[in-house]
Amino acid sequence: MSAEDLLAYRREKDQFFKSHPQSPLTDAQRTLFNGLRYYDPNPALDLVLTVEPFAEQDDILVETTTGDKRVYVRYGEIHFEVDGEDARLTLYETDYGFFLPFVDANVNRETYGAGRYLEPEHLGMNRFHVDFNLAYNPFCAYNDHYSCPLTPFENRLKVAIRAGEMLPEGDWLPHD
User: pLDDT digit string (tens) for 93-140?
Assistant: First the structure.
């Protein structure tokens, strides 16, 4: 995705959060909402990767932020490089497509503690378009009434992914 298209997408997402009836924000939050925080577009993290499918694609039970459990299929593993460091993530398959939750080295400083999500585009032949610029926070980052899967331990990176949504900040966030 071009930087222009990415910035347009982000403006649309902010507008959705501010005014759409299906926004994860409460009415009170929407009145104070001034936009999500994002890393600058990072073309180095817009990748086409080959997944190495697991010989046995086992189910994994993933706990959510509300204590529920969800089942995903461990589909395969992707390998890539970030700032000269090797990284790997497990790709999960769901009834709705592919799911890539991850936590990076900037967790709780610049990125959301429960992790960020991606839905990589399957290109066929075990190739996927993985654009970390589209990494987003789950709705539970903005509203406790949502139940979001916690990132499995195997998808906790030691490298920083400086792309996509950042940890939200502002008076519009719920306060404990």
Answer: 999 999 999 999 999 999 998 999 999 999 999 999 999 999 999 999
Q: What angle is formed at CA 54 by the lines to CA 53 and CA 58, rounded to 5 degrees?
A: 125
- Please report, for the chain, the start and end positions of each structural domain, with discontinuous segments joined by +: 38-155
Q: Which two tokens stand for residue 64?
A: 């959510």
Neighbours of 138 (CB within 10 A): 21
Q: Is the pTM of this model over 0.85?
A: yes
Confirm if 93 and 108 have CB atoms less than 8 A apart: no
Question: Which DSSP string corresponds to the chain?
Answer: --HHHHHHHHHHHHHHHHH-TT-SS-HHHHHH-----BPPP-GGGEEEEE-EE-SS--EEEEEBTTS-EEEEEEEEEEEEEETTEEEEEEEEEETTEEE--BB-TTBTTTB-TT-BB--PEEEETTEEEEEGGG-B--GGGT-TTS--BPPPGGGB-SS---SSB----STTS---
Tens of pLDDT, residue by residue over 129-160, are 999 999 999 999 998 889 999 999 999 999 99
